[in-house]
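User: quick one, sequence for these tokens?
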């Protein structure tokens, strides 16, 4: 098979997709090509524009396209044996505010290029090959990530999903304040019951996702590709801390029940326990993050009476993650008592880690060895749609290096050479898995 990845076409498409953003054009003089800050939130005008453009590319390539009730987009190249389960790949094209242009998009457009390159080489798949663009991998709009893949894998209850509230900022011109996911998706012309989204467990015989590493290890160690053996387990919580506010001058220190001071202690507590768990295990896999703090009333001369904050905690080991939360909960009780505040916890999700399929990992290793590609077997500490595809299919992932490990920022960057190499390995893997 004379397989050629059209790197120029792939990069042109990545840059065009990046131009479908609510952010103004940007430039980073340190990069050999222009970069772009990307904001593309699910079901906004830019997201719908990107979807239509992607479907146009699939039509041009001669592939069939279908969409489900949540907007997951399936692009299929039919194999010679329609009775066999398909081989799948894909990722997402939605982006958090002021993100980069490679997160998710490399897996979508790289997957499309892999299929086109195989077709142009004369390859004929036995099993159908399918590219899947997932809806709402990012939690920006509805407060929970991987909406499309959770529903595909029957990890999220359809009725609960449809009841999720639109959480776009009120200042966002796309915000539909007070509306539910069902109302927002139907306004975007994605209709039908979410119960119809779930896929059977024999739909895919194998699933491989291409993605930037979003960490520094591959670049730091001078390694071409990563083969993911497992994906860390994420859990998300929302906390409300209620105290007693008042005038910053008139409310005396002994009388204060400062909700922000209590929140600060909570943030430091969960950080301390995550560090302690890593120290005890001799590792680095437990991570805990509070990325936002909403303070009421939010005035420089007013003692905060209420604080809302999210917590993102992840680990490759669920028991260790749970032990951090147990210690954190004990501290919350102590903070409530000492500061006379009330803390309310809402669990958003607590997911299990995903393990890659040994057969797919070995196939990827064999390809790398045959192609003289330096690779590293590694875990993914970021979670991906593949985490939830693991509920219904054997999965694996391929990582490519990204500059300084940076992601979710406008200066996120991966070289055209790395993107093309990852796409080539993906294409070879899909060809092999299709022929089995």
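Assistant:
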């Amino acid at each position: 098979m004379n397989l050629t990845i059209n790197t120029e076409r792939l990069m042109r498409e990545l840059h065009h997709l990046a131009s479908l953003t609510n952010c103004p054009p940007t430039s980073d003089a340190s990069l050999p090509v222009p970069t772009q800050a990307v904001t593309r939130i699910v079901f906004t005008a830019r997201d719908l524009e990107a979807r239509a453009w992607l479907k146009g590319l699939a039509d041009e390539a001669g592939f069939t396209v279908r969409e489900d009730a949540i907007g997951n987009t399936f692009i299929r190249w039919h194999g010679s044996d329609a009775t066999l389960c398909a081989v799948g790949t894909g990722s997402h094209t939605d982006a958090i505010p002021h993100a980069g242009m490679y997160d998710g998009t490399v897996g979508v457009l790289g997957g499309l290029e892999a299929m086109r390159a195989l077709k142009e080489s004369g390859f004929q798949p036995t099993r159908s090959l399918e590219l899947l663009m997932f809806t709402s991998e990012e939690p920006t709009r509805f407060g929970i990530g991987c909406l499309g893949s959770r529903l595909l894998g029957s990890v999220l209850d359809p009725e609960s999903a449809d009841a999720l509230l639109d959480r776009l900022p009120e200042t966002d011109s796309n915000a539909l304040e007070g509306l539910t996911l069902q109302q927002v998706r139907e306004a975007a012309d994605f209709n039908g019951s979410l119960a119809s989204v779930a896929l059977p467990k024999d739909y895919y015989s194998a699933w491989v996702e291409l993605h930037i590493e979003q960490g520094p290890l591959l670049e730091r160690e001078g390694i071409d590709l990563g083969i993911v053996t497992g994906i860390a387990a994420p859990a998300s919580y929302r906390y409300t801390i209620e105290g007693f506010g008042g005038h910053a001058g008139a409310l005396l220190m002994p009388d204060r029940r400062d909700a922000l001071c209590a929140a600060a202690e909570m943030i430091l507590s969960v950080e301390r326990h995550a560090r302690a768990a890593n120290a005890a295990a001799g590792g680095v896999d437990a991570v805990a993050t509070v990325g936002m703090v909403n303070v009421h009333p939010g005035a420089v001369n007013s003692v905060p009476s209420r604080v809302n904050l999210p917590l993102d905690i992840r680990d490759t080991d669920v028991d260790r993650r749970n032990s951090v939360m147990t210690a954190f909960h004990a501290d919350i009780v102590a903070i409530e008592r000492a500061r006379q505040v009330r803390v309310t916890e809402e669990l958003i999700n607590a997911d299990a880690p995903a393990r890659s399929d040994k057969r797919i990992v070995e196939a990827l290793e064999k390809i790398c060895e045959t192609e003289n590609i330096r690779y590293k077997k590694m875990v993914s500490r970021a979670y991906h749609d593949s985490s939830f595809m693991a509920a219904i299919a054997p999965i694996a992932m391929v990582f490519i290096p990204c500059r300084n490990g940076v992601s979710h920022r406008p200066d996120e960057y991966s070289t055209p050479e790395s993107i093309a190499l990852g796409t080539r390995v993906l294409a070879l893997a899909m060809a092999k898995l299709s022929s089995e």
